[in-house]
Design brief:
Lipid phosphatase which dephosphorylates phosphatidylglycerophosphate (PGP) to phosphatidylglycerol (PG). The protein has 169 residues and is mainly alpha-helical. It is built from 8 helices and no strands.
Length: 169
């Protein structure tokens, strides 16, 4: 996969400050760790979502995901081109937006958020069909963003099934 390639530039805090797209694509710095950047990006989504909950309704957060998705496509495209790697692992704005969408479907409890986090990471890492198809064939920023939205959709589906039998209250 292309995101396993070595980048042309080593991403650092300095790299993030060169262009706003880099700062956004790297999830405000949460994608900088060398190990498991997607996990760190997903973790960063949690406090950001908690802050959004103070100002927006669930519907408001859902609507906010649309422009953040579009901005994420732009930022991922620019950052991927600069790095010379289409879907570099440190680009985590896709994890953030997708995790926000998943969190809309669980109660604000430790159990709800933990299960949402684990299921999203599982589907994001395993990339079952058709996620893997999109991951390999859709270029540019939208390609970076769409596979995580699909992983989020899988997580939501499983969460809804689980909550049907075992409410996460």
């Amino acid at each position: 996969m292309s995101h396993k390639q070595a980048p042309l530039v080593r991403p650092t805090w300095r790299f993030l400050s060169v262009h706003p797209a880099h700062f956004i694509a790297f999830g405000f710095g949460s994608g900088l760790p060398q190990k498991a950047p997607g996990t760190f990006g997903t973790l960063a989504a949690l406090p950001l979502y908690a802050i959004l909950m103070q100002w927006l309704s669930p519907a408001g957060i859902a609507w906010l995901c649309l422009p953040v998705f579009v901005i994420g496509c732009w930022a991922s495209e620019i950052t991927g081109k600069t790095l010379g790697v289409h879907d570099y692992g440190g680009i985590v704005i896709d994890e953030i937006v997708a995790m926000w969408l998943v969190l809309l479907f669980v109660p604000v409890t430790v159990a709800g958020w933990t299960l949402a986090f684990v299921l999203f990471r599982l589907f994001d890492i395993l990339k079952p069909w058709p996620i893997c198809w999109f991951d390999l064939r859709v270029p540019g920023g939208i390609g970076v963003m769409i596979d995580d939205i699909l992983a989020g959709a899988y997580a939501v589906l499983v969460l809804l099934i689980i909550q049907h039998f075992y409410p996460l209250v």
